[in-house]
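#onboarding

Welcome to the new folks! Below is a worked example of what a typical request in this channel looks like: someone posts a single protein sequence, and someone else replies with the predicted structure as tokens. Don't worry about understanding the tokens yet, we'll cover that in week two.

Example request:
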Amino acid sequence: MRVIHARRASQSFFLLLFLALAVLTAFGDRPWQMRGWPVGLFLELDPLAALATALATGVVWGGMIWAVLTVAVTALLGRVFCGWVCPFGTLHQAVGWVGRRLGIGPSVRYSPAQSFKYCVLAFLLATAGMDAVLAASRLAHEHPVPALAVLLALGAVAFAAVRRAGTAGARVAVVAGTLALLVAFGGRVLRQDDALTSSVLVGLLDPIPFLTRATDTVVLPLLDRSAGLLFATPRRTHGGWLIGGLLVATLLANLWRTRFWCRFVCPLGALLGIVAHSAPWRIAKACGCSACNRCDGACEGGAEPSRVIRHAECVMCLSCLDGCDDGVMTWRAAPSDGGERALPDVSRRGVVASLGAGMVAAPLLRLGGAISSDWPAGQVRPPGALPEPEFLDRCIRCGQCMRVCPTGTIQPAGPEAGVEALWTPVLNARIGTSGCQPSCVACGRVCPTGAIARFSIDEKLGRGEFEADGPIRVGTAFVDRGRCLPWAFDLPCIVCQETCPTSPKAIRLSDRTVTDADGAGVVLRRPVVDPALCNGCGICEHECPVSGLRAIRVTAENESRSRDRRLLPGASRPASRSG
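Example response:
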């Protein structure tokens, strides 16, 4: 079997596996649904998501440790994950192949703009690493002697790099030394502040969360609308036009440049390109090349195999081996006879500017106070969500919780939530089939980073050993008396009280005698919310007969995860950690 056929078989297998795991994550009682399948496999193999959350939190959560396997394979064999495993890369390559068959002929040549993805990577890691930088700054300020030892060690490494790599090593040494000095002395001027902290934005552009989110919120709901195999009723997605539009746009871009996303934008590809730059087994060219350049025309990554091979750009598609008539393209441990360029072709200024922009962007995103004094009351997080700063440090916007939610109540936050909260999960009882069901714990089971911690039904309902803490509250319902039928128009309605699932009910009825059109006295029952009993499930909001702006609405006040947002004494509790 030709090597290109083996690669296509591998790509097809992993793409089908990705889709199969997406289907398995849909909530239901069928034998193939929610039965302990490794539904987060691809997310757990993503080293960029693991690195960013580790920088922001200091912890590698659960299954994300599997990302070490991806890094190890890449360091040994090159960007095999990009060319043989990544389902997003497979889709891009397939669209480019279709374009060539249609005669559109997308360009495969190397472009200097391919270095942009390394700037994207530097920006995203800088935003995620602010907490680590500040912690190192304060540590260096408090313990100057160990800090000096670390600086001397970095200096020795930089000196070795200078001797080995010449001018390039000198540039790296200068940048590393400058950053080290800034970290060492930053503790004197930087103080702990809710704005000077990390912001994990990798999920916006990381290909695995990107494709997972689009599949969860757009692709599966569209495909299932007639079949009805995955969801009980047709799913709807708040802001799905933006998620779906971006997916379509990135795929169509391959008709202009093959593997457009992989070459120019993908931060995961940039990270793996850096890891793979010195892989012992790599593409190489032997002597005897006739300079036909057919290998360049077949290269999916623009690595220029006919010239000085750019190993950081090689996605290990091995098309150059299949297309070489001279038989000089090989995959071996020895260097290429035509020369090699191991490191990415990226400017020092671009990297430094991207790092600086990332370190500035994180405080700017928090400067508006969206996680402190000016927090959006309508942004209700799922049960089990960590406190907002920690939640934003972990959430990679993969959409797993949205796909598994049985009622479709968990939705992606739209642009109105700001860049930092864009596409993070929020509860929207109006768009789903109901509110958050009391007996459901699915979202905490599938979150790959622990942004939504695992919790049990007893913990959610405040039963058994959790009785002292009370139920997990995601918010509180408020009656809008200007829109409520009994309050505003003296019309009878007790729907919200009847559908309230708590016991005792969080919505009680206040009786008032009014006079009807015939002059007779009528007892009118008006709903009143008891915040001590309401857990913010949103079922009342979903069932409210005022179908526009609901007459009873849930906001995040009194949520369990935040002491600052409580309405009643003792209404907050530690973040869930069970399971």
